[in-house]
């Protein structure tokens, strides 16, 4: 119930904007419409791909195991129209009926919840499974912010010969090639992304990081989306904090360490900049920048004094990877959230010392003592 209320609240925030562009006259989705199957749109199969002579919409209608997905999409003409237009190019991630059975929905939810949910399963361009294996994220047709500047994304993870989406949903075979794009069966519904604060709180691996954000009150900034549009959070895991050692942790979370803990937490948060492994949203300049290998991006952290993080895009097993300060590679990049992105790291990011900064050396090479940490964090304290 709590997750539903959070999702409904997010949807309600954009209701006025959605209504202003005159979507169809839809109020509530109160029933499933059983779509009548077509006689046939299947042509032939080649290299594990079923080739069809129909549109994506016709393929969707023709698959009995996609009846629930077709029912939702079919209630929105503004979604059916592009899927049924031969000269467009789209990709559909279609949850099977079994996938819907694994989720809990209030089926009498307002119509705008379902159009947002369906939109999050449609991506511009034709993306084969092979193409998805080389990507870090995929943009969808769902708006990612209330200003409609950028599109919400889905993260992709290569899993043997298949692809996982948002670390949850796996693409099933065979993929469906229509005249206007690709359709992929998926075994879980791609639920609308939660907020940064909710994902961090609900993930046990970030328990220590969440404690640090709360104690230092940096969580107030992270949680309050009215203070920023989009954000990038580099979230150290519990194991990362454990690597700091008992003495350093006792100092940071004990009397006298409050200011240094706050500086350290601020160094892991970037407001108004959302950087995925393959695309960068600069919200203040209203720019979207595609990232390529060897690109270096400097991200301004919340830490006072203009302390930035350098981010380099590398290739790991054909997929883009994120390397921070030329020293730490994100262990679980592109955790998609409603208000930005989270990158899990297995090492706490330590700012460089003055000489290291001059020499362009990474900031994580330090001797592990409390005194050394204090020296590194002192310039970040107001």
From TrEMBL:
<feature type="domain" description="FAS1">
    <location>
        <begin position="53"/>
        <end position="190"/>
    </location>
</feature>
<protein>
    <recommendedName>
        <fullName>FAS1 domain-containing protein</fullName>
    </recommendedName>
</protein>
<dbReference type="Pfam" id="PF02469">
    <property type="entry name" value="Fasciclin"/>
</dbReference>
<dbReference type="InterPro" id="IPR036378">
    <property type="entry name" value="FAS1_dom_sf"/>
</dbReference>
<feature type="domain" description="FAS1">
    <location>
        <begin position="193"/>
        <end position="349"/>
    </location>
</feature>
<dbReference type="InterPro" id="IPR000782">
    <property type="entry name" value="FAS1_domain"/>
</dbReference>
<dbReference type="InterPro" id="IPR050904">
    <property type="entry name" value="Adhesion/Biosynth-related"/>
</dbReference>
